[in-house]
Amino acid sequence: MSKNEFEPVYIQTFKTGLFAEKVEKAFQMLKKCSLCPRNCGVNRLGGERGVCKAGYLLEVSSYSPHFGEERPLVGFHGSGTIFMTHCNIRCLFCQNYSISHLGEGQEVSFERLGKMMIELQKIGCHNINFVTPTHYVPQILKALVLAIDKGLSVPLVYNTGGYDSVETLKLLDGVFDIYMPDFKYNSSEVAQTYSQAPDYPPVARLAFKEMHRQVGDLIIDEKGIALRGLLVRHLVLPQESAGTKEVMHFLASEISKNTYVNIMDQYHPCGSIDPKSPLSRRITTNEFNEAIEAAKKEGIMRLDKQEKLRLIWKF
Ligand code: SF4
Description:
- By secondary structure, the protein is of the alpha/beta class.
- It has one domain: Alpha-Beta Barrel (TIM Barrel), CATH 3.20.20.70.
- The protein is 37% helix and 15% strand.
- It has helices at 9-15, 19-29, 71-74, 97-100, 110-122, 137-149, 166-171, 188-195, 200-215, 244-255, 285-297, 306-314; strands spanning 59-66, 79-84, 106-107, 128-131, 156-160, 178-181, 219-220, 226-235, 260-264.
- Strand 5 (156-160), helix 7 (166-171) and strand 6 form a beta-alpha-beta unit.
- The radius of gyration is 19 Å and the shape is globular.
- The chain binds iron/sulfur cluster.
- Iron/sulfur cluster (SF4) is lined by residues 33-36, 38-40, 42, 50-52, 54, 88, 135.
């Protein structure tokens, strides 16, 4: 599909007037917050905060064109990232610990968030990339109405840790063109240890299926820019802690062998990782190569840049 033939899915949703209902339903969920699988039940409309620590107003730590994302998102002019403050999964090894755990950022109005999207589009970003959006779905939907009204026309990226409920994702059907979830852990025990979320593996599997149902495999235009679809991230952890083989098997057998996957090698101990933990070191070259092989063995061949970098290093 060429860019000229493509129209972001939210344009049609906006034209048919379906946004109002989505915004209303999403804000209702904040009364006894059930936006994510934590189901805290706190009244965020009344100022209470749950596990994620997010309040009523959305907080942003930064927004800018980003060139460190996956190639189809970065293109020539960058991905328009908006980094949300706080997080619903709160991994102990988070590389953005000051944002996700310590709450670095500022409250922004719905109008301001809408203007940020327009600014990023005006400077040429190929998409608007909401980083860690799960706990702010209502606020994002409301700001989107303002941005679309002002001419927003690039695809939206839902860049999530994968701990999303199907009910909330259904509200995003017809809004996001690109889902970019992490698949972090295949083991409940590991998910409990590092994110206090023992239900992460089954929750993520259901979320991935819903995301793929909505947008399908990743479609890239003739210039290599992502237009629509699922783009999966998987961070390889030391001592096979992320369950890479099982994750690749799940993707190949229950999502699609044509899934676009970024197998990431940049893990390094940070945040509040215990120095005695298996995660107190970087991964080895061997561990990364085994992860790539696990994907290929399952028939997953659409791998992001990491593999090519490795090939270059061999020469
Ligand atoms: S979004 Fe935050 S407050 Fe709401 S259920 Fe999830 S962790 Fe709890």
